[in-house]
Amino acid sequence: MMRPHPFALAPHTSTAEQAHEVRFRIGAANSTPRRVRIVALDDHDEEIRTVIGAYGQNVELSSAAELTALLGTTSMQDSDWPRAMNAASGAIATWLDAPDLVIIVGREGDEALIAALAAQTWNRRGVTVSAVLRPAPAHPAGALSAPRLRTADLLRPWCTMLVHADSHEYLGDLLNALGAS
């Protein structure tokens, strides 16, 4: 008598078994590049623009200052966020448009409250948020002031991955690894 091969599929599976397995099936191959949004904490960082330029329309560059302008405020407290979002909901919804992945880029010491609040919103929507921070520039005396080291602290709770890198070359490597190209 011939035995079935141990890895052979069962000749018939019940509808209940098929329904249980459906949630694990992939509807379509992941052959399309991700939609990535880079949020720059500093509008004047040309190095970020150079790195992102190689990825074309798969990577969109935004700035935290754009969101601040949409909210119409320069100094917002954490508790003001829901009220401000409701006041400018259409413009905010467009700015927060659901990308597949968000990477916040800047330097330690950059103002990150608005980016952290946006990261919190993306995180709650199931969007993966990461951050790549370069070291803070040293003061003339060579010491760093305590308030300038808050950038990572503000972003850390809402980021899946937070990286301290020496240059933005790491950003290009990260974009390649995450399928942005």
Keyphrases for this structure?
alpha/beta; Rossmann fold; 15% strand
What does it look like?
- The relative contact order is 0.17.
- With 181 residues, the chain is an alpha/beta fold.
- The chain has a five-stranded parallel beta sheet, with helices on both faces.
- It has one domain: Response regulator (Rossmann fold, 3-Layer(aba) Sandwich).
Quick one: CATH superfamily? Response regulator
- Rg, nearest Å: 22 Å
Mean pLDDT: 75
What is the share of helical residues? Answer: 25-40%
Secondary structure: elements and pairs:
Elements: H1 15-22, E1 36-40, H2 46-52, E2 59-63, H3 64-71, H4 81-87, H5 89-95, E3 101-107, H6 113-124, E4 128-134, H7 151-155, E5 161-164, H8 169-177
Parallel strand pairs: 1-2, 1-3, 3-4, 4-5
